[in-house]
Amino acid sequence: MTDPIHDVIIIGGSYAGLSAALQLGRARRDVLIIDEGKRRNRFAAHSHGFLTQDGVDPAIIAAEARAQVMEYKTINWLAGRAETAERTEDGFAVTVAGKRHLSRRLLLATGVRDILPEITGLEERWGKAVFHCPYCHGYELDQGRIGVIAASELSMHHALMLPDWGPTTLLLNDAFEPDAEQLKNLDARGVTLERSPIAAITGHADIRLGGGRTLPFAGLFALARYEMTNPLAAQLGLQFEENPVGAVIKTDAMKETSMPGVFACGDAARPMASVALAVGDGNLAGTGLHRSLMFGTI
């Protein structure tokens, strides 16, 4: 028996992938979503900055989104990790647990994985007391003391932003030494400098320094690098766009990648990340895919 050919296989069933699936389901297209259940923001208890969902547990947002999307009869869900993806004569083949699934189009909504600074106590506080996005988590610190853990000169961006949310200390941690112009800018924003290296993060968000002092904070921010959660984009030979903290899949205005018929959206395909941006990006990808299915040549 010939394997069925879906209109679209979506790899990644988080906010972006589900948003794309919603547009395709409403166009009555046959969609298979493959998801391994590892949302990037699974460590956070609350999501902020998304209209109508401000302060809601991101797991609840994702679960409700999935439930709504799965009401569309042409959408199917497969739990598992996509192991390989390749172009075929008729479209694409994706392998999950050794079984091939075929489609006319392919959408990568695989997300990225944060590479956290190697500081004792940081990993278990990620998304709870140590954050990466001031817009997502700054307000809830209630103008308390904020610490910025430097990873490189790029941490200047965090340090200069965060005084709008509370008194800010830049913990250099031997990552770099600000030059005269940077020092002037930090001073203008009222940022305090701490040059002693960090020994560990303790308590809620307390920094224990190498010399024995402890600095208490309401919250901490760290600029983490990131990488693709799945090697499929590289496996397909797609083009990437480098940015200072990682690389994202290169797409055009309608979210199609350098390989015709392959689309990408969400954190894997845009440098700025939030639930709201992922949903919008997925919406665009879904409509782009539908246009491709109607008018495309492959």
Automatic annotation (TrEMBL):
Superkingdom in the source lineage: Bacteria
Organism of origin: Neorhizobium huautlense
Keywords recorded for this protein, A-Z: Flavoprotein, Oxidoreductase
Start and end residues of each FAD/NAD(P)-binding domain: 6-282
Name under which the protein is recorded: Thioredoxin reductase
InterPro entries: FAD/NAD-bd_sf (IPR036188), FAD/NAD-binding_dom (IPR023753), Ferredoxin-NADP_redctase_2 (IPR050097)
